[in-house]
Model the fold of this input.
Amino acid sequence: TYRVHRIRPKDTVEGLAKLYLTTAQAITKFNHLDPRHLTNFDALIIPVPELNADRAPPGDDMSNWRGFSP
Done:
């Protein structure tokens, strides 16, 4: 299960991991990123373990976001 999260100024990988009930390592590995450079991204795909999928927030609706195409 995956969620899309639009990056906000105060976001950290650790904070996103806690919010989406996953690990910072899973987020950085899936997105091939250096957590120190999170501001280089507009949005991240958050991998959510199946066992937490029903408790994790839905993520951001990117369907109306300019430049996004599923």
About this structure: The chain has two helices and two strands. The two ends are 15 Å apart (CA to CA). The longest strand covers residues 2-6. The beta strands are 2-6, 43-47.
